[in-house]
User: What shape does this take?
Amino acid sequence: MKSVKNNKTIQKDGAVVVFSGGQDSTTCLFLAEKIYGKENVIPVSFFYGQRHAKELEAAEKICRRFGFQGISLPLDFLKTITVSSLTEEENPIGTEIPEGENYPNTFVPGRNLFFLTIAGVIAKNAGYHHVITGVSEVDFSGYPDCRENFIRSAEETITFAMDYDIKIHTPLMHKTKAQVWKTAEELGIIDIVYNETVTCYNGIPGEGCGGCPACALRRKGWDEYKAGKY
Ligand code: ZN
Assistant: This one.
């Protein structure tokens, strides 16, 4: 028992990290470890038919190697109810926002709402009040479910839904990719992030394929970081 507040006994606290095995969520995982301690951090990974499912292998490998007790959950029904180039091999990954649309065809509608809701439920079950996600408004994509207003709204909804306080933390929300590399450096995990994580849409770990939008963004951030621009 760590503390007693408002007559409610808070037995323990920790965080659930939405963990894809990519650069951003891996940085979030180690940030969470620093704050809550490894034994109070639960990484959760989702399989939703994404073409870069190699991400999940990276996630599992990182959990095993560093002793995190992770959870992997299937959310593959997402593939059957949405249309996205991330889940359809035959749909080429677009780098541009198509005319008349608000985001590229890599957007998976509803994805982060499902992720955060499930993470919130896992947190409640563990007696934790914190959920951490690596979403960023600075990301190239402009996905609506990566924005601050969505996060605050989801936090409120999940809290109301369970009558249980859930705080959603987005430590990378306003960071550029170069600043995320700098954060990894400060956490002492830059080699892990550089070599072990998968950002590439074609599922190639580390430096990736070099040709997809995710690789281009990662490379640009790395070059800026190395040049001291963060
Ligand atoms: Zn790539």
Summary: The chain is about 40% helix and 10% strand. The longest strand covers residues 41-47.
